[in-house]
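Re: the pair you flagged

First of the two:
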Amino acid sequence: MSSAAVTNKKGFGATLWDYLTTVDHKKLGVMYLFAGTLFFAIAGFEALLMRLQLMIPNNDFVSAGTFNELLTMHGTTMLFLAATPLLFGFMNAIVPLQIGARDVAFPFLNSLGFWLFFLGALFLHLSFFLGGAPDAGWTNYASLALYSPGHGIDFYVLGLQISGAGTLISGINFIVTIITMRAPGMTFMRMPLFTWTSLISSALILFAFPPLTVGLFLMLVDRMFEANFFDHTMGGNTIIWEHLFWIFGHPEVYILVLPAFGLFSEIIPVFARKRLFGYSSMVFATILIGFLGFMVWAHHMFTTGLGATANAIFAVATMAIAVPTGMKVFNWIMTIWGGSVKVTVPMLYALGFIPSFVAGGVTGVMQAAAPLDYQLHDSYFIVAHFHYVIVGGIVTAIFGSMHFYWPIMFNRALSEKLGVWTFWIFFIGFHCTFFIQHFLGLMGMPRRVFTFQADQGWDLFNFISSIGAILMAIGVILLVINIIITAKSKPLNCRDYWGDGRSLEWAIKTPVPFYNFKQTPLVRGYDPYWLEKHEGNKEGMIYAEPLGDIHMPNNSILPLVMSIGTFVAAFGALYHPDGKAWAIPVLILGLAITVGAMIVRSVKDDLGFHVHVEEVIATEEHLYGKGGNK
């Protein structure tokens, strides 16, 4: 493969084909980022419509049925199709660079994981145009879902099966990548915190998604073939769905929040200009959170009558998981304490994150007390609690990391001035929206209601909450404007944009070559780039190998073809119970496309390609001028 093929500018058609067929972790990271942003915008718009409906009493802006659809799709989209892919975007773009790898362990599966996620998400959202979206809440409790008319719930079940398969594939891929592909000298206790949290999060995916898959399958056969697993009138058990869902659902919170913790653990030391305080305790706290995350699911079910013993066990576990989380908070504060703090947009998000997430954590520990939970369950207090965790913890990490890692991912920097405006408008809007909802819950306002009466005392607080939601929407719009403006700005072509980078991703000059490192780096301690810089190495790296040929994987259209096959087959499965004549042929066609692509993959000689030394040198000179990556 010639260096010209690597470095020359391409037309739109060639660029589009490149992204449709890519297996490069950096490009897939960009695709996850933009797909996640799309679904984040959709879910945010759904939330805004709900808040407009609840802005005044007895409002008829949307109907009760539409409100239920918006409620269901907002929660489902935000957690499965926005937060998860946005974090996967950073994991794809940054983790291989942090561990000194040239790509992930299974590049083909990495592409397959993305396309399954994206087409599963697309399938779910087509429900709006094909008879109605799911309307049983994002938890899809069987008592509501089994009797929901139309195909909304079927879109939910099949869409999440397809998308969840992609997430599971990606989780396995990251586990193998981090365990087997670290640069020489990078022991487990020298890995950056974001890599650690990505590893534990991927392990949680490995164990948490199978229960969801089983639950969705049982729901599918209940709905389509009247199997009656969850229908209590026919000998089934409705509560079993809740167990299967929350055995997945509570680890899902940590699947999302652990990478967010890792991102802030990268941002804070850079702008505090000192080493992360208590690195070893942060690692063990991460592992402990992952372990305890599987022992707390029934605190969502205190009101179902499990009994005092079960309630006590899960209450204690819920209290216990606050301990390693608290360790992390104290370590972040101690990292900032005494540091030479540089307040940038990423650091603003980090400083805003700590009190916001602590507030969400404290109200979470309150729910560990079963008698109190019995009073607050299904009230707006719970809505406020989990939004303080999700928005205060995860969304702030995503927004801050966009500013932090944009120079590496796109060779450009987002505007600091616009970023500051975005932060304050979004942050003030967030607290206006959800802080007041704690009091709405204490005043008795239940979740999931589409309107309320004027004499209940909730008017002012709901109005303030809706104004806050509008401010949040303005903040997101400003971020999108920032991204559009930045796309037209001058490339950076620099190394270590923030000037205080500590881990290996900052050692590479931008734009990052498709092979990442021309030579595999040698890691001689924690914060390897910082260590080498301060020992006088201008490149910030020493190498574990001489300059030589590089082996890279080939691009492939087969992951997209396989995913399209499952997408087509899902329509056949969905409409078959209706007796549609075309349903079975469509199902068979979709399965044939998927299986055919798998067979082609198995027999195709796909050993990748070699980039020869001369081509590496030519690529470096094309990107950075004479002298290569210096």
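Second of the two:
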Amino acid sequence: MAKQEDDFKKVISHAKEYGYVFQSSEIYDGLSAVYDYAQNGAELKKNIREYWWKAMVQLNENIIGIDAAILMHPTTWKASGHVDAFNDPLIDNKDSKKRYRADVLVEDYVAKIEGKIEKEVAKAAKRFGDSFDKKQFLATNQRVVEYQEKADTILKRLGRSLENEDLADVKSLIEELDIACPMSGSKNWTDVKQFNLMFGTKLGANAESAMDLYLRPETAQGIFVNFLNVQKTGRMKIPFGIAQTGKAFRNEIVARQFIFRMREFEQMEMQFFIRPGSQKEWYEKWKENRLKWHLSLGMGEDNYRFHDHEKLAHYADAATDIEFRFPFGFKELEGIHSRTDFDLSQHEKYSGKKLQYFDPELKENYVPYVVETSIGLDRMFLAIFSHSLQEEELENNTTRTVLRLPAVLAPTKAAVLPLVKKDGLPEVAHKIIDDLKWDFNVIYDEKDAIGRRYRRQDAAGTPFCITVDHQTLEDETVTIRHRDTMEQNRVAITDLRAIIAKEVDMKSWLQRMA
């Protein structure tokens, strides 16, 4: 656990040092669980969003995108169940006065058990080498099986208790597991209570007549209330999907783990409208499709897993999470939910407007069912950034820090470096930039020795460095250096565009999903 904490601290520090993420309002000592995306962070975030949008909307003829408002009529949230049921179970430690999410305390306990399993696997892999069968080891090693059974039993009990709103049993589980306050080590807990997570605000200039509103806690409802508008104007036939990205807000009392859990965050969601009765088939299809999208980025299949929900939301008949191995363990990255017809039926009921589809093949009206895919953009950012940050030992017994971002997502695709700041080399470098900037985000860097500049770009995640030297003046060739291998090649200036495009082209990356 100590190593995990150290690794995560390095991620946070690196994100600030290299212009990815800053604490919001830092000059005023910051605002808890609110962050600003800096110059490189804004670019990386934009590229992730675009990678998702292209895969979800542009490449699917039956999925279209919208951008719904953050502020919605307050009855929206009554219909959706958020006013009455959008709660987190919280528990206070009487000695430290710290408040925690009760379910997270239990999940963190289980994560420690999973850490023990991973240690056993690592030891066995080292002992048996190439002959090691991980799947068989997990199924047959007595110690590992006992660890897994204990973890499963705990999570099943937690799920049942939360589903039945048996908060007393959640507290009993915490006490039985002997879970201590992470800050003080005290085990003196209060009862578990529910806390609504929505931010309230007002609409109107007059305090007496102003309407009470909420900042949306999710983006999905903006899709549901626009279902008929989109279906009719887009002449969409079921099955079809509506996608959007946008900000959502939750008053997380226990916000932590950097940008993993924030009060202001961004979602990338798609609601797929289908015939009732076909939800199981579509649910499985979207599970497969979404995992392929993640794997297309090349971050390793072992770093992902599905986690089926023990406790289903009030609207769902099936739900799973795609979990990613963050520095602090496997945590939810994307949710895939079979939402039935709950949302559209509720909005029909509360609005008095029909939200039905006439199926020309069946010749009947019905309220469509929905399969949802929902991914946190900020969590995706953290997954990519934390996985990419590596310290590498080199052959000359030195180390380098390298941010191996997938090239398709890297904020800056290439840095153009004049070997020296004279002899016309800066002018040639700027000319190269002026040519490449129409297709790629490129930068100029002339400060420090060339080796230092390479290291700086490695740490910033730039896939290519292009060095302009005196030979360039003679034959119009440059040295192009690859971030991941540090390999250097002499190429013609006229070939640069094609070389870079081959590595960063979104089409070639997304075709890995096929």
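The mean pLDDT is 93.

-B.
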